[in-house]
Amino acid sequence: MMVDAKMAEQVEDTLIKSNLSVGKAAVIVMFLSGVAILTAFFREMTVAYYFGASAELDSFLVALSIPHFVGESLVVASVIALIPVFAKIRAAEGDLSMMKKISNLAVVNLLGLSVFTAIYVFAAPFIIRAIAPGFEEYRYGLALRLTIFLAPLTILSGSLGVLKAIHNITRRFAYPELGRSLVSLGIVGALVLFTSRYGIWAIAAGFIIGTALAMALNALPLAPLHPSLKLGFNLRAPEIKEYLKILLPVLISSGIYYIHIIVNTVFASTLDAGSVSALRYASTVIMVPITLIGGALGTAIYPAFADLWAQNKKQEFNEIATKAIRITFFLSLPLTAILFTNSEPIIKVLFERGKFTSETSSLCSSLLAISSLNLVSSIGGGIFTRVLFAAGKIYTASFAMAILSISPNVLLNILLTPIYGVQGIVSATVISGAFTLLVYMYVYQKLIQTEKLRMLAPFLRATVVSIIIALIGYGLQFYTPALTPLLRLGIIGGVETLLLLILASIICPTEMKWATRLLPSFKK
Question: Has residue 479 got a pLDDT over 90?
Fold first, then answer.
């Protein structure tokens, strides 16, 4: 009893010290997400320099697609699925009991990943052919060999989910976000050191090295909890049953983005070599605001959602959800206008060097312009997903949303890709994303809200601001063609940002106040 008391005190001291408010958590996550984004850009710029949009990079991206889908989706899914389980155990039995049961969950998670990886490697020849039906023998063979080499990445990435969930449930968001930066830095280091000798295999090694470093970073701060972590395997444990019940639908829902990437890859593989790579570069840029805004908001508010729903505080739950969506509209719509009007200089400044040619820049800038129209849907969909999961609407938010999101994308790709090529692929994603967001809003209104969700007026106000910014931006682009891409981007982007601040303070004063105060109202 004395040992358990001391251990419980140590666990509580380790876990509770950093119990942050939602507002402070959002600030920390947003800042560290910014750092992770900068390192990710450095990584993508290095990849572009060495490989451009090439057949070899196409093969690597296809080989990475399933491990990346499972690994990254499982990180998100584990966090979303484990936090409600951890919250219930922690509230009912305390921190020590929670940590003991986490050990069992970690073992189950690891064994499941190992079994999946073995099956995937065995079936890789068939899976690669299904993902990239248009690949000729060279790209197919290279993708198959890279797939086998990258197999450990699935286990490493997926195991990060449990570690991230532990940090998130105790409001310690720094380590998971810093881990993302380590992954990028590991890839850059491998590219610089090994590309000249090993070619595309250098980037594959970099992903494994970087992910292993991120695992170490997230595990070391939990070392003081070692006495309470006892490895075991009990599939009949209540927390395991609850976790597995939640995991599959959450995994499907959180993996929708990556499923879209796989769908797009299937159709891009039938086009010219480099099409898969071009989609990747455009996706890298558009993921910046999605990660910075949607990721930061979603990560910070989800534990608060889970707590409020568990305490039956539905009015406060609805207030936070409403504020999150209004901030999403306020930030994402003007950013859409800025990205749309500056797509060409953004791509040129970031990537046009080494093997990344001006022709590749033209293709990627057109893809970025179209992709920017999906910003609101991507960020808003992520927020609504977390709201529905926190409220226990797991199957509604996963299977139904997956079907309603992916089916239109496949159908639109069939219709648009033969006509518009790779631009048709991105257009299909944008249209299906908008449809999915509308369905999310409808489901939220029907199943969760405690009072009427008034979103039309904030949406229209943000749209007016965005249209004005886009018109001014296009005018400036027309009159500044002789300037260098960097100078054009600096001048036009600066003018658009200043215009956003002025218009927002007049047209969207409430949302402007929330944003400039860095979400302190979420604490109320």
Answer: no
DSSP letter assigned to residue 292: I
| 420 burial type by CB count under 10 A (0-12 exposed, 13-18 middle, 19+ buried) | middle
Q: Predicted confidence band at 452 (pLDDT cuts at 50, 70, 90)?
A: low
How far apart CA 79 and CA 86 sit, in angstroms, is 10
Contacts of 6 (CB under 8 A, 6+ apart): none
Per-residue confidence (pLDDT) for residue 68, from 0 to 100:
79
> What gap in Å lies between CA 216 and CA 212, rounded to an integer?
6
Q: Of 299, 319, 211, 293, nearest to 254 (Cα)? A: 299
pLDDT of residue 453: 56
454 φ/ψ angles, rounded to the nearest 5 degrees: -100, 95
* CA pseudo-torsion sign 288, 292, 297, 302: positive
Sign of CA dihedral 448, 78, 68, 292: positive
Region of 372 please: left (phi>0), alpha (psi -120 to 50) or beta: alpha
The count of other CB atoms within 10 Å of the CB of residue 419 is: 9
CA distance 224 to 362: 52
Q: What is the chain's length?
A: 524
